[in-house]
Every structure is written in structure tokens, then in C-alpha cells.
Amino acid sequence: MPKVSMTVNGKQVSGEVEGRTLLVDFLRGSLGLTGTHVGCDTSQCGACVVHVDGTSVKSCTMLALQCEGAEVTTIEGIARDGVLHPMQEAFREHHALQCGFCTPGMIMAAIDIVNRHPNGIDEQAIRHELEGNLCRCTGYHNIVKAISSVANKKAAQAA
To answer: Does the global pTM surpass 0.90?
Structure first.
């Protein structure tokens, strides 16, 4: 079997994988990082979103071998020294979750959205950007509020 090596949440990892092993399966099965969820297996729901080299990707449609040498960040890797990432804190503050199943992927997608829009982003654009992430519990209102709050703070700091 082929061997894959990558950096996951700041730690160098490697493992033997079948050529068809999806990144989500490597993260969950081989590394025990179960915060990345499998929701649909068809790239429709976004529960499996992680960052690969700083960009959000749906890990259910990416092979582990495609991440050879890459920097992968999962939901488990965004808090620092016991302090929530600002997006995690915003989701908590704005009650932007219910059952929590979509939350890890939603937060990872949200971080990427804010990073790609350093001058801020309006609520309509946030809703458009979230089209690939499904939440079956909410109407997205509080999710959008959480993302907007982080985007506005980041834009204000940049100004």
C-alpha cells in the first residue's frame, strides 16, 4: 500500500492508505480526528470541510494521497492553548448551532469565507458562500450572524 505524509493540525503524520482512501476516512479512521463528519458521501452537505494548505475543501471528495506534503487543518486544530478560535466563539455567542453535526464543517467553511473577504462581507454574500454547507436544524440566520460578526471585526481591525 502507498504511504502518505502530511502535516495535520501542526503535527507531521503519515500512514499507509489504499489509493482510494478519502481524506475524511484517513482523518477519522487513521488519525482519530472525528470532528470532521461524513454526512452525505457526495460533496453536498459540507460536514466534512477541512482546510488543505489554507483553503477549505470537502474531504469526502479528496483522496488522502492528494494531500502528500500538504498542511491540513481540522476543527480540532483551530483552537489555541484552550482558547476557542474567534469563529468558534462567534458560533457559541450567536447560538449558531443546534444538533452540532454540521458545525465543524460550517466553521471551517466560515473561516475560509472570512479569510477570502478581508474587507468584510454582507449577509447576502455569506448566504451565497454557504450554499455548499447544509444545516438541517436551523434557518441559517444565527450562522450568518456569527460569520458576519467575525468578518466585521476583522475588517475593522484591518482598517
So the answer is: yes
Q: pLDDT of 68-106, one tens digit each?
A: 999 999 999 999 999 999 999 999 999 998 899 999 999
Position 154: which residue type?
K
* DSSP H stretches of helix in 74-134: 86-93, 103-116, 123-129
Distances (CA, A) of 71 to 29, 138, 149: 18, 32, 27
Which superfamily does 86-158 belong to?
Answer: [2Fe-2S]-binding domain (1.10.150.120)
Q: Is 9 in a helix, a strand, or coil? A: coil
Q: Where are the domains of the chain?
A: 3-77, 86-158
The runs of H, that is alpha helices, within the chain are 23-25, 86-93, 103-116, 123-129, 141-158
Residues forming beta bridges with residue 14, ordered by sequence position: 5
SS3 label, residue 7: strand
Domain 3-77 has CATH 3.40.50.880: no
